[in-house]
Structure formats: structure tokens, C-alpha cells
TrEMBL record:
Claim: RNA-binding is one of the keywords in the record: no
Species, as recorded: Microbacterium proteolyticum
The protein, known as: CHRD domain-containing protein
Domain CHRD as annotated: residue spans: 41-187
Signal peptide: 1-29
Length: 236
């Protein structure tokens, strides 16, 4: 498996989470890796500006009309997370005290929380859609320090699998430092289902599995409809 380390420049700005202190040029541990052959879980995020919360837990809407779609596939045995992120309706450059401005935070609905994983920012910066995809392997770092340790220290992907609703995906820009969009992680089927990027999880689908798959896809479709309605409302 080919691996390469990556590092992102540190920028200055507010971060939706706890009061944190940024530090310069740490030795980042995350590595970009090939996609694994199997996944233990999968999650989606439908991120919108109305879900953004600032450091004090106060609703701080992001950019009107912006949306974000995050898809995460996890192999927690190998501590690998594969990501497909798409931002639309977002303008301006990124800004965050973390090493990138696109994260998974440990934060429940309506609550702030620290970043646990920092992803490469979707590109290109401009008026069109921005995308980012790949796979990262832990141990994870964010470039942000709280209580003397990086907020990614000792974080495991098994924590997401145990409580996906306790995690959120977001991105931050110069004009919307608290967050341009944000949304909670929602579990989607992975067992025996084609993951869509060359890998499948093991196991055959039972009748229950088929029902779960249909339910999961229905949930994604319903969430997408909510995003479309929010877009339409924002455009009025």
C-alpha cells in the first residue's frame, strides 16, 4: 500500500468548537493511503448554513444558499477513513486555526466541540462546486491544541461508529469563521453493499439487510429533499 504524508498550512480564524489554542508546524501524523478493500461503516452528512454553532453554542448561520455533502466510509480496524466532500454555493477562501478548514468535530446537535479529523479543503476556490476525496489513516491530528494536546490525539474511528450523532462535519471560510455549513453524521448501510468506489463490505444481504438498505437510501433521499427545500427558501 502506497502511503504519503500530507500537511496543510495553518491559518488564523475562529473555529466552531471549544476555546482552542493553535500551534505552528506540528509533525502531522495523518497519511494519505489507498482505499481499503472493505469498510466497517459508512456515514453521510447533509450540511447547511442554519446548523452552524459558534464556540459559545450560539446559532451563527453560515453562508445563505450554501450546502455541503460529506460521505465517509470507515475501516475502523485499520483506522482508515475515506471521504468524498462536495461544497456548493460557497464563496471566499478558507480560514481556520486548524491545519485545514474542513473537519469532523465531536459535537452533538446544537453544541460546539473540538475537531477530531482535518480533511483537505475542497477545491477549487471560486464560485463553482468544490470537491475533495481520498483516504486518511490515523493516528489523526488537527494542528489545534487543547489542554496541552492536539485535539486528534488518541481519537479512534470506533468512537464515530459508537455514536455517529455525536459528530458533525463542517467547513470554515474567511467570512464565515464559525462555519459556512454544518451537519450531523448519519449512518448509512455498508454491509454487503457496493460502496461506490471499488470496495465492498463482506457478507450477503439478508431480508433485514435489504430493508435496512432501502431505509438508509430513503433517509439520504429525504435529507437531500430537506437541503433542496432550504436552498429554495434561502433563494426567496
Amino acid at each position: 500500500m502506497t502511503k504519503k504524508t500530507y500537511a496543510r498550512p495553518l491559518t488564523i480564524g475562529a473555529l466552531a468548537g471549544v476555546a482552542l489554542l493553535a500551534v505552528g508546524s506540528p509533525a502531522f501524523a495523518d497519511t494519505e493511503v489507498d482505499e481499503p478493500s472493505q469498510f466497517t461503516s459508512a456515514f453521510t452528512v447533509m450540511a447547511t448554513p442554519d446548523q452552524v454553532i459558534n464556540n459559545d453554542g450560539v446559532a451563527t448561520p453560515g453562508q445563505s444558499g450554501a450546502t455541503g455533502t460529506f460521505t465517509f466510509r470507515i475501516n475502523s480496524d485499520q483506522e482508515i477513513i475515506c471521504y468524498d466532500i462536495r461544497l456548493e454555493g460557497v464563496s471566499g477562501d478558507y480560514q481556520s486555526p486548524a491545519k485545514t478548514a474542513t473537519h469532523i468535530h465531536e459535537a452533538a446537535v446544537g453544541k460546539p466541540g473540538p475537531p477530531r479529523i482535518a480533511f483537505p479543503n475542497p477545491a477549487p476556490v471560486g464560485d463553482g462546486p468544490r470537491t475533495s476525496s481520498g483516504c486518511l489513516q490515523g493516528p489523526f491530528t488537527t494542528g489545534v491544541v487543547a489542554n496541552g494536546a492536539d485535539t486528534g490525539t488518541n481519537f479512534s474511528l470506533k468512537q464515530i461508529e459508537a455514536n455517529p450523532a455525536g459528530f458533525t462535519g463542517d467547513s470554515h471560510t474567511v467570512d464565515f469563521a464559525a462555519g459556512v455549513v454544518r451537519g450531523q453524521l448519519t449512518s448509512i448501510p455498508v454491509g454487503g453493499v457496493d460502496t461506490g468506489a471499488g470496495g465492498t463490505a463482506t457478507g450477503e444481504l439478508s431480508g433485514w439487510g435489504l430493508a435496512a438498505t432501502a431505509g438508509g437510501l430513503g433517509l439520504v433521499a429525504a435529507t437531500a429533499l430537506v437541503v433542496q427545500r432550504r436552498r429554495a427558501a434561502a433563494a426567496k
